[in-house]
Amino acid sequence: MYQDHICQAPNRDEIEKALFNYEIRKKTAECHDSPRLIIHEARLKLSSDAAITSSQYNTSQSAIQRMRRDDNIPSEPKTFADITTPLNFQNISITNQKFLLYENNNVNGRLLIFGSKEQLNF
């Protein structure tokens, strides 16, 4: 039944590269760190042999940007007028308190004040 099947031990470098890619995907979904920092931290976990054969920085950076674009993470604004604060970012999710305390909507001199009631009591 399994006459032509060849059983081989897994390639350690391939396993490490898969873990490297998983770590990048996980960090991209969990935080908004720069691609450079995410890639650097993931590379620190690789052996020297796996690091040599892992994806180039530009490839990993493109993957991070593509994942963030696909997840509808707001892009970095270029002007004050580009700054919009979606409702889901205006409240602290744990306590559902107002987090965006003030927004003047002036496109020439935008002013946003973030805080919580606990912070104002200090």
From TrEMBL:
- List the lineage, top down: Eukaryota, Metazoa, Spiralia, Gnathifera, Rotifera
Using the UniProt annotation, give all residue ranges assigned to the region (Disordered): 57-79
Give the species.
Adineta ricciae (Rotifer)
Q: Which domain of life is it from?
A: Eukaryota
Q: What is this protein called?
A: Uncharacterized protein
